[in-house]
Write a structure and sequence with these properties.
Helix content: over 70%
Distance between the termini: 36 Å
Number of domains: 1
Oligomer: single chain
Order of helices and strands: HHHH
Radius of gyration: 12 Å
Number of strands: 0
Largest sheet: none
């Protein structure tokens, strides 16, 4: 994926509400993120197979980041 595509992806993660990132199962979360990125015209920046693979391998990091944000807001 291009650097621009990676930046847009992580920007989406930062803007997504933590409960979405933490409550959806892995497949549902990947599908939800892909749909969000497709709405933003992201498909032009990354092949869907590459995008699915990229998201899938980073799910633990995405969930860790969401848990950290959730803890910050609870403090």
């Amino acid at each position: 994926m291009s650097p621009e595509a990676i930046r847009k992806f992580w920007s989406l993660i930062e803007m997504t509400q933590t409960h979405i990132l933490l409550t959806l199962d892995n497949d549902a979360l990947v599908n939800w993120l892909v749909r969000q990125l497709q709405r933003e015209g992201f498909v032009k920046l990354a092949d869907s197979k590459d995008l699915n693979a990229y998201i899938s391998t980073r799910l633990p990091l995405i969930r860790d980041m969401a848990q950290e944000r959730q803890l910050m807001y609870q403090s």
